[in-house]
Write a structure and sequence with these properties.
This is Coniferyl aldehyde dehydrogenase (CALDH). InterPro entries: Ald_DH/histidinol_DH, Ald_DH_C, Ald_DH_CS_CYS, Ald_DH_CS_GLU, Ald_DH_N, Aldehyde_DH_dom, Aldehyde_DH_NAD(P). The chain is an alpha/beta fold. The chain has 16 helices and 18 strands. The strands form four sheets. A seven-stranded mixed β-sheet has the order 10-13-14-9-8-15-16, with helices on both faces. Helix 3 runs antiparallel to helix 6, helix 4 packs parallel to helix 5 and helix 4 packs across helix 15. 43% of the residues are buried. The model has no long low-confidence stretch (mean pLDDT 96).
Length: 467
């Protein structure tokens, strides 16, 4: 039944995209406004559904992490979309004057979007804002690990959008595989690197271009002389918001060896200031389900068995099994071959690795797979510039964490195993458009001089062109 419904929706939306290949700005604006109204009119319902899926996530946290960035993405598209649509002038080689060149942004047609569970609203709406601004129709596959949100969002979309504009699907791995195999005009996936490989393989059978927003081990690097207390507070916030279930959360920290103890103490103070009631804090998020909770407790057990020194950041209880709550913990100088240091953590564990020179820290970052994010804490402008030039990451925030993702004028995307392609703002508009090159040639054109039969005039012209 799912496969037949999926294919029917695809055929309907695909036909609609071909029947109306270039929606004007009023149509695009209307879709964006309806998407914004859906969120604004049902904010409490969506926040409650997301909290239910996690077992508990503070309403304020969902407002900051899902509601506001979704609305900002739409507002940014509404402010700038009409300008993005305009043909873009391009220069013409002198040898082809008086021809005129331009780039015409054209909708691709039908875009597929696969959404993870950790920020289910924003990671659906952000790509949708780009798709709608670019004039596309869309099909969205929501995660099976956000069932309460899936029910409510699907219902709201059906009420607000025509089936020829937007369709929502749910289901597990089999449904995701079927969705990935559809011959979309573009497919945007957010999730793990392992699943991203399968999505890309399925898309490749139809030569579907993909944007993959994956993850990896995003490092935070503290340099000698940086504001240690400020760095600790910002890193702890970035790690503990959503209980670390964030693709761009700092995955480990590199700290000057002489400042290791001070950093540990500053992290403890920051964590207890942000969440004074520890695991009982109403602002602290639960781990989404038993599978992820068990994975994290397994990482903890392996690290303990390897003799890693642990430092708890909360007082009191360190775990609440029934509520899937885990207290944040620092892992001091763990060996690099344990699972904690080999895979993305996606939880409130934070390895801290001491280093002796900044060159050693940069070498460590560059020795691993290229991460989705890099966080560099420093007061030295030259050293910051050198770090930006000599490391690779999907994005960078200097002297803070996470915040580059919230900038609609910056492209968001990975590099290497952390992803490919990018979106947000105009970058998303361009990704989900065909930037069609157009050359307008007048009746009288100099290109007649390079046609056969070739003679002395051609020879002289070639000599001039090659100078």
């Amino acid at each position: 039944m799912f496969s037949s419904d999926l294919r029917a929706a695809y055929e309907h939306l695909h036909a609609a995209s071909r029947a109306d290949p270039y929606p004007d700005w009023s149509a695009r604006r209307d879709r964006l406004k309806r998407l914004a109204a859906l969120i604004q009119d049902h904010e409490a319902l969506l926040c409650d559904a997301i909290s239910d899926d996690f077992g508990h996530r503070a309403i304020a946290e969902t407002q900051v992490l899902d509601i506001m960035p979704s609305l900002e993405a739409i507002r940014h598209a509404l402010r700038h979309g009409a300008g993005w649509m305009r043909p873009r002038r391009a220069s013409t080689s002198i040898w082809f004057w008086p021809a005129r060149a331009q780039v015409l942004p054209q909708p691709l047609g039908l875009v597929g979007i696969i959404v993870p569970w950790n920020y289910p609203l924003y990671l659906a709406v952000g790509p949708l804002a780009s798709a709608f601004a670019a004039g596309n129709r869309a099909m969205v596959k929501l995660s099976e690990f956000s069932p309460a949100f899936d029910v409510q969002f699907s219902r709201l979309v059906r009420a607000a959008f025509d089936p020829a504009e937007l369709a929502i699907f749910t289901g597990g791995a089999d449904e995701a595989a079927a969705f990935s195999a559809l011959p979309f005009d573009h497919l945007l996936f957010t999730g793990s690197t392992a699943v991203g490989r399968r999505v890309m393989a399925a898309a490749s059978a139809n030569l579907v271009p993909v944007t993959l927003e994956l993850g990896g081990k995003s490092p935070a690097v503290l340099t000698p002389g940086c504001d240690l207390a400020l760095a600790a507070e910002r890193i702890v916030y970035g790690k503990l918001v959503n209980a670390g279930q964030t693709c761009v959360a700092p995955d480990y920290v590199l700290v000057p060896r002489a400042e290791l103890d001070a950093f540990v103490a500053a992290c403890e103070q920051a964590a207890r200031r942000l969440y004074p009631a520890g695991l009982d804090s109403p602002d602290y998020c639960s781990i989404v389900d038993l599978r992820h909770y068990s994975r994290l407790t397994s990482l903890l057990a392996q690290a303990r068995a390897a003799g890693v020194k642990l430092h708890a950041l909360f007082d009191g209880a360190q775990r609440m099994d029934l509520r899937h709550r885990l207290a944040p913990t620092l892992f001091i100088d763990p060996p690099l071959d344990i699972a904690l240091m080999q895979e993305e953590i996606f939880g409130p564990w934070l390895p801290v690795l001491p280093y002796d020179t900044v060159e050693q820290a940069i070498a460590h970052v560059n020795a691993g797979p290229r991460p989705l994010a890099l966080y560099w804490f420093d007061r030295d402008k030259r050293r910051i510039a050198r770090a930006l030039r000599t490391t690779h990451a999907g994005g960078v925030t200097v002297n803070d964490v996470l915040m580059h993702v919230a900038q609609d004028d910056l492209p968001f995307g990975g590099v290497g195993p952390s992803g490919m392609g990018h979106y947000h703002g105009r970058w998303g508009f361009d990704t989900l458009s065909k930037l069609k090159p157009v050359l307008r040639q007048p009746r009288l054109a100099g290109t007649a001089l390079i046609r056969p039969p070739y003679g002395k005039t051609f020879t002289r012209l070639m000599a001039l062109m090659k100078r």
